[in-house]
Amino acid sequence: xxxxxxxxxxxxxxxxxxxxxxxxxxxxxxxxxxxxxxxxxxxxxxxxxxxxxxxxxxxxxxxxxxxxxxxxxxxxxxxxxxxxxxxxxxxxxxxxxxxxxxxxxxxxxxxxxxxxxxxxxxxxxxxxxxxxxxxxxxxxxxxxxxxxxxxxxxxxxxxxxxxxxxxxxxxxxxxxxxxxxxxxxxxxxxxxxxxxxxxxxxxxxxxxxxxxxxxxxxxxxxxxxxxxxxxxxxxxxxxxxxxxxxxxxxxxxxxxxxxxxxxxxxxxxxxxxxxxxxxxxxxxxxxxxxxxxxxxxxxxxxxxxxxxxxxxxxxxxxxxxxxxxxxxxxxxxxxxxxxxxxxxxxxxxxxxxxxxxxxxxxxxxxxxxxxxxxxxxxxxxxxxxxxxxxxxxxxxxxxxxxxxxxxxxxxxxxxxxxxxxxxxxxxxxxxxxxxxxxxxxxxxxxxxxxxxxxxxxxxxxxxxxxxxxxxxxxxxxxxxxxxxxxxxxxxxxxxxxxxxxxxxxxxxxxxxxxxxxxxxxxxxxxxxxxxxxxxxxxxxxxxxxxxxxxxxxxxxxxxxxxxxxx
Length: 566
Ligand code: NOJ
Hints:
By secondary structure, this protein is an alpha/beta fold. The chain has helices spanning 30-35, 37-43, 78-90, 109-115, 182-198, 232-235, 241-253, 270-277, 309-322, 341-344, 353-365, 395-407, 412-422, 425-428, 459-464, 469-482, 484-488, 531-535; strands spanning 11-14, 47-50, 94-99, 128-129, 156-159, 164-167, 202-205, 221-222, 229-230, 260-264, 286-288, 330-331, 370-374, 490-494, 501-508, 511-518, 524-525, 538-542, 551-552, 557-563.
């Protein structure tokens, strides 16, 4: 089979709320994106992925959609959207929409109708259930089962008017759609076709491994210290998930020019990902797995665990090997749900911020798979200084804080320590365009304060400085487009037991690339086989002075190439 176009593509993710505000209301919008398309095109990326821009009460910043076929007025209009799409296409890029169909907003007309009463024609479009047998509806513990919601509290909301509960894995304003009902599926496919007919080039599918549930909805194992049980095993990768995605493929994508589909799947295993991304099965092109961003999590959710580089390498190594023959990887450090990578695995202090951001970018992008760049990552944007819980806006941070502190008796400072390091708002501070007030993001008051480091860290400064993180990312993306070994080469992990260096090779035909990243603030010599020959090889890319004898400076990355003659 011919290689699909997205094997050599790089995707740039925009979180519209925080990207660029054109009208001074403090919230990013579509015209703001239109104004900054050259920044994105200048990086050389192939695809733009837009986080949700549909009408929404914004309970979860747009991941609660109240109308799938329109644009949120705060962001603009369908006419603005068409202009944006044209602007993206004119620059030779493609546009991928976010598809949020595990749940809708409770303000979507489907849910409003469903909620109207037990005999509503759309009652079965959502998961309505009576109280637990023998319990008084609406009283503590009477929920249909013990599942906790991802955002804290029960996953069930009581509806006094009908005396029943509806399921919401996320917030109570995000009721889960019932994919068992074929009418729901047909309505979703019709909506997807409407967007594709309008010219969009694919979808990023939000928590799409949650759509098939164990329909018996059993209690989950109680979570330690919590009143709730873990429903994950009954809603993740359920019995009909593959069937639903295959059906979606037939109804929506078959017969169209090659699109890009990427399925967000928290908890997906390598074995399952092979099935989801096997082109012969016609489900999705690639998945977002979570193993590497959960590497620094442990048994206690409110403790920070340091990164063990050997564990991280083990995870990437498993994914690279597992999808080497069949299927395809996505590669990401950042998105709107993850803390900034330079603060997480690099050093965001003034001395090494840029160098470590480049090292992390190179190590990620030179794996086999399709890399994703999240807005601001190309500037080395950092986590933000959140002082108290009042500084957070994210429903997840606030919900989990309430659950942990108010209901589980956790020390507020312990919870805050973790939220400061991991909270999703770290990724959502406004994009830093220039050194003018509010980083040029808005002329009004930003919905979330701008990171105070914007006078140094901003796009205008980065564009001017040939040594910036931005220009390094540009070079990295260009390397993917010009060196076939980056796209197709076999991956081999080196030094699996080394806690300081991340090293691997990529080999295609007679070309071999060697990548070594120093994950420490110290000087480290790479003790690899054939080191002397590599030290003499062509140095394609680095973020510090060319090393001697493979002795890497703090946070240095090197990319060497050797070509053997036949
Ligand atoms: C995953 C999205 O990325 C996240 O932002 C959202 O809160 C949940 N899905 C629920 O839609």
